[in-house]
Amino acid sequence: MSNTEGSGQEKGYAALVQSLREHHKTIDPQNISWRKEQLRAMQKMLEENEARFLEALRKDLRTNPTEGGLLQLGLISSEITHALKHIDRWAKPRKVSTPLHLKPSSARIVHEPLGTALIMGAWNYPLLLTLSPLVGCIAAGNAAVIKPSMMAPATSALLAETLPRYLDKKAFQVVEGDVPEATALLKERFDTIFYTGSAPVGRIVMAAAAKHLTPVTLELGGQSPCIVDRSANLKVAALRIVFAKFANAGQTCVAPNHIFVHKDVADEFTAILKKTITDFYGQNPQASPDYGRIVNAHHHQRLVALMKGQTIACGGGSDSRDLYIAPTLLTKVDLASPVMQEEIFGPLLPIITIDDLSEAFNHISANSRPLAAYVFTGSKKVIEQAEKINAGAVCINNAMVHLGVHDLPFGGVGGSGFGQYHGKAGFETFSHAKPIFRSGSLEAGAHYPPYDNRFKKLIRRCFGLK
Ligand code: NAD
Questions:
Q1: Which fold, 225-411?
Q2: Domain edges within the chain
Q3: pTM for the structure as a whole
Q4: Which residue's CA is minimally distant from atom 39 of ligand 1?
Q5: Which CATH architecture has domain 3-220+417-433?
Q6: Which of 3, 73, 156, 276 has its CA 20 to 30 A from that of 238?
Q7: Pocket of ligand 1, candidates 145, 201, 245, 344: which has the most ligand atoms within 8 Å of its Cβ, to mutate?
Q8: How many other CB atoms sit within 10 Å of the CB of residue 82?
Q9: What are residue 95's DSSP bridge partners?
Q10: Which of 137, 226, 253, 314 does the annotation list as catalytic?
């Protein structure tokens, strides 16, 4: 069911959120079977509507069905399978030891659902960015309002139609719409907000959440850098970088934004990148069924403008009527040029030649902390250095694929966001780890006033003071 009905500018979602909250109260917070039923229902929804979801993705972003199957439906489905396998262990209360002076006693940590969540997804992977957080949200036992992006309208409409047919619709609702609907939703009190998108809207979300003291997770973007060292296997690096950069026409939050290449291999590597692009998408990528399109005219114009004045080593073509921009390599890029000032979020790949790897490491540490950093090298020493990069994630000799490892938490740091999800991290983000302490009824009575020497001695011993 789509929840876009409302009364004009006063469109409000108070009743909707209240009804989810009331229903959620009727579900035992420790009821794991209900969570598993919902996860299985989500998997069934994906299986039974696979062709329709792939068609919606094709309409929204000209996503090739194989790519949509791999990077969206497949990832979500395997994440559900992973959650179903581990949920009992994640949700199992964990005993912890208690200090001597509080004995006899016991203590444990019980994970409880936070309540009713708001999940706001971005348009670039419209299915993945709404349903992947929903996996952690359900695994932790919450109800949720899911707000897909209107910039991917076909996927949004299909989610609104199918999700309430499969999941408990008293606990999960899709609200479609644009800024007015998002703004109205944000006025309501949720127990947690999970937002994926740009930093400016992230600030709006945080400000709205602050009014209710609602915790937020912000999954933002940034300029994920890539370094190619002269010791790297250049052919393998090119395959992995070209895939990560040009899948979804570069509109991927963890796509390599730009590459620093060591001068000794810069020309050779640029030539291999060019050949790899042709191998993937042919001489005319516009005719390739495997190559996507830019989401709308605004982003198309923005990307065309970023190419102005740049040295184009490959690609550079565009067709505004088809929202097409060729996979493009830019060389001799000045670090002060506009293309290096913002997240590109499109199929333009600046290549910056460096004399020494320290130039790249220094540039990365001097800029906002990225969502991911990629280093291709054959050197152990460089790997050690790479692993120290301050980024949401570090991926050595590959790009983007780390997000498919369900046991790795996914999320940003600094400017690329905060809070994490995927696998257990998603379960924890949507849970409250509640401490429960039980005391025995025996009472030593040693720590109550009036404080005497016996008390002082006991306290010093218990806290290890000399
Ligand atoms: P978007 O325009 O789809 O917006 C994201 C969400 O915010 C949508 O649900 C939308 O309805 C809502 N929204 C938009 N404007 C709003 C407003 N004024 N007030 C309230 N809500 C509003 O997506 P976008 O912002 O263009 O996303 C692109 C950015 O997201 C890029 O920077 C990208 O790197 C980042 N991103 C990050 C991740 C991640 O996992 N960290 C994933 C995908 C995209």
A1: Aldehyde Dehydrogenase; Chain A, domain 2 (3.40.309)
A2: 3-220+417-433, 225-411
A3: 0.94
A4: 219
A5: 3-Layer(aba) Sandwich (3.40)
A6: 73
A7: 201
A8: 18
A9: 108
A10: 253
